[in-house]
Amino acid sequence: MRAITGRFMALLVAVVVVALPFTGLMPPYWVTLFNYIGIASLVAIGLVLLTGVGGMTSFGQAAFVGVGAYTTSVLTVQMGFGPWVSLPLSLLATALGAVLLGAVTVRLSGHFLPLGTIAWGAAIFYLFGNLSALGAHDGMSGIPPLEVGGHALIDVRQYFVVVWLAVVLSVVAAQNLLRARTGRAVRALRRGAIAAEAFGVDVPAAKLKVFVLAAVLAGLAGWLYAHFQRSVAPGPFGLNAGIEYLLMAVVGGAGRVYGAIAGAAGITFLRDQVQDVLPLLVGSAGNYEIVVFGAVLVLALQIAPQGIWPIVFGPPPAVQLPRRKSGGVLGRREVPERGSALLEVDSITRTYGGLVAVNQVSFDVRAGEIVGLIGPNGAGKSTTFNLICGALAIDRGEIRLLGEAIAGSTPQRIAARGLGRTFQHADVVAEMSVLENVALGAHLRGEAGMLRAMLRLDRDEEARLLDEAMRQIRRVGLADVAERPAGTLALGQLRLVEVARVLCLDPVLVLMDEPAAGLRHGEKKALAALLRELRGEGVGVLLVEHDMDFVMSLADRLVVLDFGTKIAEGMPATVRRDRKVLDAYLGS
Predict the structure, then answer these.
(1) pTM of the predicted structure, to 2 decimals
(2) How many helices (H) and strands (E) does the chain have?
(3) For the chain, what is the radius of gyration of the CA atoms?
């Protein structure tokens, strides 16, 4: 009911906004200003996806606006294409440019990423100003207006409908994307790539897709700008404009799609007023708005680091499990025969300079077996985990999963083979709900891509993924907090979120790095019961744990490491009497 009411209110607001210019209550100047706000909103929505959600800061989106604007200008003025025919071609040209630039840009990290966007943004800007075919610094004029049914949309009120229809459709598509499988993968990138990779997310591909999508939205804005302005010149597509667009996304709310519109409105209104008022106060003309924007950005980051949208409208609503008319559940992986070898680790070695972190370690894990990997701090347990999962490369040795060598494979391919893991320090996306975090574990069990998500053609698959996530949440006893943001949970609950997430992968082998850390006594008992249940289903478990009572009561076998070397292996009762183990770890 709440979802239906929300959609009705959104539709009502959209109808009122579209009708307002035709009531005579809004003068043409303000209609024109709102047209520019709508065009800027498209760029800001793309930046919300790219920067606020995907964690990739870009100062170069204005260059993509220019690509869309100049492409339609060339097609319509010089080649005689109609404006509507030029639309897909303009978006295609922008997408191709984004693919070429993004293939390099998205692999940058830290401060190199925004510096890279500044570099190619400036290069494209100067390219516009120096190509005689584009009119150089004088630009191009005579761009035809849009036409609908043979009627030219010259009236700013008519163009208002086109611009804001594009904004509404972009908002709907972006919201659909963020709620879907692909959107969860993109949202996980902001926290870091390690957990996303461990559950099969192709991180470079996900980054490139959102980079291209943000560029296409900017190209759409450029196409609208060219046919509204009826002329283009390099000025609006430079670095200053790129900074303004980023400021809109940040001020509105870097992770909120609607915040992009609020930010675009705020910055556009501010620029309009500053350009009129400041020269009167200062006594001379100049680009004073840049100084004001800098002050606004600093102030916004201090007062409202999450943007103005959350302050005005509060936190986002909880993610609800969608209802699904059709039945059916996700397919299950075939479980190997009980007792067969799942994981075979053969003499693996990993060094860091002169430090040998893992020294010729060998052991195996079989189907329906719990193996404990124990040892003092610094023994090499977590490093061994990362070598098995593909997060680190081995120097020597062999690792086989289900008989296939996986040394050198990516974490995504290893996850696809049925290996799931938890982390020593809980690695969840704090802003996402528990349900969404757990559903990330089922990423490889879905197929819908970005386009299907934006068009809501993935509803049945998405419902099955969330059903599976909810089933695993109930399994670990967190059903009452499923819709809460994961960042509000206690440490012990976060551990259980990770356990539920790894179970969503439908693994044949689970690697758990200190899953009992931070759990209370009752929670440990429930976790132990769950691990025994997995063992009964034929799943193998490799367990790193410092709680000896917990691991001794569960493990079928123990492997003991000390300074990266295996010093013992066997049944728990045998290992706990081993003199080497007593001296190195357990004590007398």
Answers:
(1) 0.87
(2) 23, 14
(3) 28
